[in-house]
Structures are given as structure tokens and as C-alpha cells.
Amino acid sequence: MSFAWWQKGVIYQIYPRSFQDTNGDGVGDLEGVRRRLDYLVWLGVDAIWLSPFYPSPMHDFGYDVADYCNVDPLFGSLAAFDALLSEAHQRGLKVILDFVPNHTSNAHPWFLASKRSQNDPKRDWYIWRDAAQDGGPPNNWVSHFGGSGWTWDEATRQYYYHAFLPEQPDLNWRNPQVRAAMHEVLRFWLRRGVDGFRVDVISHLIKDAAFRDNPVNPGWTGNGPDIIRFKQTFSSDQPEVHEVIAGLRQVVEEFEDRLLIGEIYLPLDRLVAYYGDNLKGAHLPFNFQLLDADWNAAGIARLIGNYEAALPKGAWPNWVLSNHDRPRVAARVGAEQSRVATMLLLTLRGTPTLFYGDEIGIGHVEVPPERFQDPWAKREPGLGVGRDPSRTPMQWDASVFAGFSTREPWLPLTADHETRNVSTMSGDETSILALARKLLCFRREHAAVNCGAWRLLSSDDDVLAYERRSENERVCVALNFSNTTKRWRSAMCESATIVLSTLGDRVNEPVGSDVLLRANEGVLIQ
Ligand code: NOJ
């Protein structure tokens, strides 16, 4: 059986604003990514996914795109992108772009045309509706960032819909011209040589044709962000979306060996539908279950088992521990358990996505209110929805701005950045960075881990153990989710050897009839 690069490989997410600044403005750029390619090779990842770098007014930090086929001067130029792409490829690294098809910026020429008049040929490219009888919005749909999802345009006397900011009007994907134009955007980058796309909020692309009101969320307690007041029954995950995604997939298939990932936050049964009929949807519908999971062995074991069982035949799994929208894994589970989590991520069956900075264990970074950047944090203050703490700069060395920039970065560094950085930690065999690197190396070298089968060995509240097996080899993983020592009994590991501990100090240790796991320790056994 042969596997594609994106099945065996590990994806590394880069938030370009926060990876490496090279022009001294406190914000990262594409040239910075290029200069750090050797680090990524050293670390041992296979592909990078770049969050948006397109021209944008940056109301949502690039998720408001004003030109899909160019580079914002803040990040560089098309030439800088081409240099990055070609040097990545020279090093055997694949490059995945963020494609944001649900909405454009309100500064996009398409929207400027669309709002010119009700008769403009581009009017129907966006979602315009008359006011309700009382003059209010056409329905009760709310924006993900708070407030109504509808904004009134006085000049043309209609509302337009935006699932996110008013500066991010939703495109009308029922319009064939929109589809054709967006397919051309994909081809623009595919011809340039990119290896795939992560598609932003892919499940949002089609809305209910009748624009029915969303039902009230029965679980709503009166607290929390606006978006949870209603179930998104009619504003997302509509049956017709799958045909649109099949269209995107077809375009990707015009080119060899390219990848389509979908960003989807849905319950498992609805998530797996995004593999599409006959697996002609997204290659990888992002599996975000670990982002919200209660951190105990039994629960995680159930989650993995249920996911494996729900996958359509032939569908390839994938796992995500952190991203730029959710609290980092170390902020959620703590520094000790984040090592266990890293071993989990890199030894499960399916493609892992590693978020920049998780390999050095960046945890929660306190961002004072006066430094808030995230529009969501500003629109719904006091609810803790801000995403800035997950987007802080990568920390490269012990210098004053951590080698990220020559001036104060756009977001703060961690309080311990003088020790929590690549340069310091790469010299410490027991650091989480050394662990991540060893795991990535082990994964690459062992078919059992990068493409073998997964089987649960045992689980209780504290210890999760599973096996990965290929034709010729078998690897066991035992993870202690508790902060006390545990004895894990496994006859099947007898005469095997511990090859790696999350604590960095057990190598080639023979395994008896049971394994002693120290507090917060995970081991690889072979
Ligand atoms: C999901 C992206 O990951 C998030 O950062 C963004 O704000 C929304 N989609 C809107 O594009």
C-alpha cells in the first residue's frame, strides 16, 4: 500500500505575523519564514501551512482578504513568496496556503462593485436581503464575533450578511460566477506550485436558501459570546455545501499530489461527512476534538476510538492540538501534560498538525487589555474569547525580543522567554523541544507510527496505552495523564524496550511485565 506525502507527513502551522520579523516592524513576514526553513527541517516536519498573507486591511489579521492573488506589503511580495516556496521545496518541505472563500474583505473590489447598486452585475456575488418588516435585519443570525450578522447599507437600502466582522462580507457561493472566480484563485496558486490549501470555515460556504431563523440554543445559560445563543442550524453545514467542496476538490485534482484540508468545527457524525461522497470532499476535514477534550486517559481513549470508528472506509484521520483560534495546549493542560499531549499527537494514526511554538511549550501569555489586538476580544470584552494569547511571537533565542524582531513585537512574549526559546532549549536533551524533535524523527523512521494501524491496549482514568503496528514492526505508547506514579501492566510489551520518554531520560530500558510511569510521563516502547 502506498501513502501520499500528506498522510505520512506532519504539518506545521505558521502564523506569519508571529514567526520571524526581518524588517524591524514588530510583525513577522514571509522572508522571516524563508530564513527559518532550516529550523523546520532540523525539527523534522514535512509541510508548512501559512495563515493568510494576502493584501488585507487586517481587521481580522488577514482573514479579510482584499486580493486573493497577491501578498500584503506587510508580509513581503509575490517574489518573496516565490523565494520561500522554491527554497521550501528544495528542502523537501511542502507548502500549504490558507484559502478564505467564505468571505472577502469589504475592501475587495468585488464587494465595492457589489455595493455600488442593487443592479450591479456583482450584486449577487454577496448576500444582500431586504430588511424585515420592522426594518430590522432579515433574520436572527448572529456574527461569530458578536452582534447581528447583518449590516445595513444605507446607500442601496439592503442588508448584507457577514458571518464574522461587518468588514468580512460573505460571498454567495450559490452564484456560479463566484465559484468560477474562486476556482481561478486556487489555480493561480496551484500553478505557482503550492501543495495544498487549508480552507477557512469550509462548512459555512452555503446558507439556507430560505434564510430561516436559527433556533435558540437550549443549552444557552445567558452567559458567553453571542454566537452560542443560537444553534447554527441554517447558517452553516447545509447539505448543498458538499457539492461546492467537491468542486474545490476537482480543481485541486487538476494538479498532481495536492491537498485539501477543511476547517470544520462540528460534531463527529457531521464532521466525517466532509470527506465527501466517495471521499471526493476534503482529504482532511480538520479533527479538532482534542481542542475541547477533558484531559483524562479514559475520555481521550473513547474519543480516539469513536473517531476511528466513525471514519468512512479509506478516509485518512488527522489530529490537531492547538491553533491560532484556541488556547494553546500548554495553556489548557499545563506544562507537564503538554509533553504527554505532544507524544499523543505525534503517535496517533493520521496526519498531525503541530502549531508553531507548541514545540517549545509556549503556554498562556497574559495580554494586557491595552494591547488587545483580536477584534473578537474588542467586540465582546470580558468574556475571555480573545485569541491573542495563542498568537504571540515565536521565541528563537535569549535576546531581548527573543530573536523574533529588533523592536517590541505586536504581541508580548512569554514571561520566561529568556529560557523558553529554540536556542536555549535545543541544547537541553530534556526539553520539550528535544522531545518534539525526537518524536518527529521517530515518526518519520517508523512505518508503524507514520502509517500503521492503531489499537487500544488499555485505558483507565490515568493511563492510556495503545499500539501502532505495520507489517514489520510494532510500537507501543503508554501515557500517564496523572501527576502521580502509575504502574502499567502489559504482558504484550515484555522483552521490548523503552526507546523514548517524554521526560527525556529513559533510553534503551528493557521492559518487564509492567512499566513504571512517573508522574506526567509518556513512553514509547519498541
Ligand atoms: C477561522 C479562522 O481560523 C479565524 O482566525 C478567522 O477569524 C475566521 N475563520 C474568519 O475567517
Task: Summarize the model shown.
This protein is an alpha/beta fold.
Describe this structure in words.
Strands 9-8-7-3-2-1-11-10 form an eight-stranded parallel sheet. The protein is of the alpha/beta class and 526 residues long. The chain has helices at residues 5-8, 30-35, 37-43, 78-90, 109-114, 176-192, 241-253, 268-271, 289-292, 297-310, 329-347, 375-379, 422-425, 432-445, 447-450; strands at 11-14, 47-50, 94-99, 128-129, 150-153, 158-161, 196-199, 259-262, 284-285, 318-320, 351-355, 453-459, 463-469, 474-480, 486-489, 497-501, 509-510, 514-517, 522-525. It starts with a helix and ends with a strand. The protein contains 15 helices and 19 strands. The chain is globular. Helix content is 25%, strand content 16%. The protein has three domains: 5-101 and 176-437, TIM Barrel (Alpha-Beta Barrel), CATH 3.20.20; 109-161, Oligo-1,6-glucosidase, domain 2 (Alpha-Beta Complex), CATH 3.90.400; 452-525, Golgi alpha-mannosidase II (Immunoglobulin-like), CATH 2.60.40.1180.
Question: What proportion of the residues is helical, as a percent range?
Answer: 25-40%
In the sheet with the most strands, the strands line up as 9-8-7-3-2-1-11-10
Beta-strand proportion? 15-25%
Number of helices: 15
- Low-pLDDT stretches are none
CATH topology label of the largest domain: TIM Barrel
**Terminal-residue CA separation:** 23 Å
The secondary structure category is: alpha/beta
Number of strands: 19
Question: According to CATH, what is the class of the largest domain?
Answer: Alpha Beta
Q: So, the CATH homologous superfamily of the largest domain?
A: Glycosidases
Shape: globular
Radius of gyration: 23 Å
CATH architecture of the largest domain: Alpha-Beta Barrel
pLDDT averaged residue by residue: 97
Quick one: biggest sheet? 8 strands, parallel
Number of domains: 3
The small-molecule ligands in this entry are: 1-deoxynojirimycin
